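Issue 218. Parser rejects a valid record. Input:
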Amino acid sequence: MARYELLSTWLLQAPRGAVWEAIEDASAWPSWWRGVVSAERVGDGDADGVGRRYRVRWRSAVPYAIGFEFEVLETEAPGYMTGRAVGDLEGTGTWRLFEEHGVTAVTYDWRVRTTRAWMNLVAPLARPVFEWNHCWVMARGGEGLAQRLGVPLLGVA
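Output the parser choked on:
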């Protein structure tokens, strides 16, 4: 299976708490994150959100859709959340939020492997396309979050 380690960063001129609230509520992602087709909460967790589960479906500039379920494994509001994905992609994702002087840096560390046979078959040639696609989706997330919060997006990487 093909493995990917992808790191994305958003810089927003916004308080960390507001950014956290938007990211933490995955069921609302389709309303502001272009590329998220659906995000359905399918399981409740504890008071901190640990154990909460979502079923998400993504579609981007590349004409294929990806679906997986993720479960929140650990959270420390408003700065850290990690979870496990199972489905078309399997692995872990970790959000980290840092604030200084009214600017919040968001990092997303996505370490996954593909489970679809066709993706694994074409991975040696298509890896750059898959990685570009991830970057495209994450850039749309940064733009959508800035718009949702009504703040400037200072950078995306």
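Fixed in the parser; the record now loads. Strands lie at 3-12, 36-43, 53-59, 65-76, 80-87, 89-100, 103-114, 153-156.
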